[in-house]
Amino acid sequence: MASDEFSGNYMEKHRPSEGWADLFPGTIRTISRPSEGVVDLLTDNQVLLRIQVIEAGMVRFRFSPEGRFESDFSYAVDPDFHPEPPSHEVVEFGDGVAIRTAALSIRVSRNGLKTTISDAKTGKPLCQDDKGFHWQDNKTFGGEVVKMMKTYQPGEHFYGLGDKSCDLNLRGRRFDLWGSDTYAFGPDSDPLYKNIPFYIGMHRGGTYGIFFDNTFRSRFDFGAEQPNRTAFSAEGGEMNYYFFHGETPLDVTRAYTRLTGRPGMPPLWALGYHQCKWSYYPDAVFRAIGKGFRDRQIPCDALYLDIDYMDGYRCFTWDAERFPDPKGMVADLEKDGFKTVVIIDPGLKIDPEYSVWREGIEKDMFCRRQDGNLAKGSVWPGLCHFPDFTRPDVREWWAEQFKELVGDIGVRGVWNDMNEPAVFEDGTFSHDIRHDYDGHPCSHRKAHNVYGMQMVRATQEGLRRFGDGKRTFSITRSAYAGTQRHACAWTGDNVASWEHLHIASLQCQRLAISGMSFIGSDVGGFIETPTPELYLRWVQMAVFHPFFRTHSSGDHGDQEPWSFGEDTTSLVKQAIEMRYRLLPVIYSTFWQYVSDGTPMLRPMPLVAHRDPDAYWRSTEFFFGDHLLVIPMTRESEEGRFLYLPDGDWFSYYDDAKPKSVRKDIWVDCPIDRIPVFVHAGAVLPHWPLQQYVGEIPHPEPELRAWWKNGTETSRWYEDDGDGQAWKEGVYRDSTITLEGSPTSLHLTRQWTGSWTPGYSKIRLVLRGLPKGWEALTVQADGTTIPTAPDEDGNPVAVLPHGFKALMAVWKAGVVPEPAAETETAATV
Ligand code: MIG
């Protein structure tokens, strides 16, 4: 272990009794406006508060106890985010200063710089300082331990913070952010791999978010230490936070991702099913996995090579015996519809025979200790040196390493592991290791939480550079705010247990609302082996996770879809097939994430945010705008109570519609499916079944429209599925509005973008029409279209691909009210 001083938890150890007193701002002496949108408040004890109005509902607060700031630099903020300061006014009043925008009213007290931020429209407080900003001088390292304390608003609840494994609602809990390799973590493990210092507060007066952009080890306390107080602090750096106001909690995430960025569109294949294990080797075994999928006709798009493909775990090399012809193997798999994804670790083996290490030494690419010695640590290859990814020239050099893997061999995705960073001896780097931090030299105390992010940023650049114009696909285990711009992520080394199935659901929901929607867990569990039922239930849930990959440590048994007996195989296959049919919905939902930052997974409390009964729900989640998914997280469960928020719902599978009661409705849950409900009025695009994305060159879509007595809109995004043309508007982004009455259904469709589909027809299925309907006629753009029933009796019409308006009318039949109508039971 590093010495006590460097072990991180000195906030615990050095209490004021040891001479580290809490210090507070004094009284405002001067108010100045250094630039447009910026207000500086300086106190008599030299505390400077700089308030920057970024958008009407987005304001930044920066504090310095020394009356001045060091140069402003952030890895989290999207370099392409440059909004014009919105109109605002600054007014001095007796007790302090007020700043008003169209959305917010901010008051800062003359004494102590305490802020109250209120909704400008309702006048209600959103967020209020208790102690406000305070600090301790850091006698060990210089600088300060910076702290903030706010009060709870009446009925306030908290969500977010990235990949914490506890219940969604953070109220009453406390967390640290310090990226850690947490093998077999549990529901209370903290910290975990990712560092996302962003949370959402929700209460009767409204909803807001706070992003504390500070990369030092930080702590968030939602009333654990002091009831009804929220506190956040960091072991160094600045008290530097952004405040976001939103009409809804999802708006808050949207605002957060305007600041910290959004990813580009992924290659469509990346939304298919992925198969991984530690490890598939040699070559013949890897190919056989591919064959296993095709023989059984289980769809799959990507196969993974874990560390054993390398020569002695040396990154960017191949074990020549296990994989004599990587290029041929990758090409053969590609022909069969599989993309190959390989793992990369940050540690490079100290070995004079190893050219990447030699070059790293020659070019001085590795991290050094405070006295200038190279930092060493053991990982899989043995003793390693570690690139300082916080240096631009190191990232450049790292990106170049992908020339052969990506450019020549044809690897299509890179999986970035161990980038917390993880080191066998001490868990992670010593705190005294030096980093460049893009020209702001610092110790590992400051760079730790961004190390993995900068690694995957460099990897993404390598994929871009050698990927022949294709979209990039990289995965990361560690992350800091903003990492969503560079990579997809997985939740690390979980366990094959029912508890972990639920934890995976929590983590993915939480990461999605924390700006990282492209997320998934190791399906089935990484450690240990799932029972057939557990594996199946996990797959059924992960159909609705943006990143869908089975992975296991491989120590305990096989974990392929066919490893659990024939009955399970066919049910797993059925679930994966559902994923492939739903790909257009998943892709459209991804587009909403890319274009406006809307989380792909939406936790119930954030959707039903006006309903306090929803605040502690964590099981049901929304996938996109219209699907409500309820994972089955207990063994042998044959049904469960669930919560349906406002609105009319159909079972996705058979249009059985739960009646009247919304809360605590019981649903039966047969083993072949998990409950999925769809909003009445939704129009969801589906694809015919493919074994991999692109198997059918221009799949003919099927639009399923669920009748509603009212109006609903749906989004449908289409493009080439890869390449960069989408950035130039070569897509079709349709908004479809459904308006229904007891005897009619109208669809109108508008789109933006210049993409022309390669298919010519769309199949439309009208679902959930009022019972007893008869004499249906359908017209598309004024032309009558014949209909025929599908196997469930739903009318199907085949429409030209460019249809813009559809009208269906029918006569109401006479339907006797069934006796069961008033009961709460439904089957999915
Ligand atoms: O020390 O590469 O989380 O997914 O299979 C373990 C081997 C290193 C940890 C990753 C896991 C991966 C494993 N890695």
From TrEMBL:
UniProt keyword terms in alphabetical order: Glycosidase, Hydrolase
Glycosyl hydrolase family 31 C-terminal domain segment(s): 597-684
Span of the signal peptide: none
GO molecular function, one term: hydrolase activity, hydrolyzing O-glycosyl compounds
One Pfam family from the record: Gal_mutarotas_2
GO BP field: carbohydrate metabolic process
Family: Belongs to the glycosyl hydrolase 31 family.
The protein, known as: Glycoside hydrolase family 31 protein
Species: Luteolibacter ambystomatis
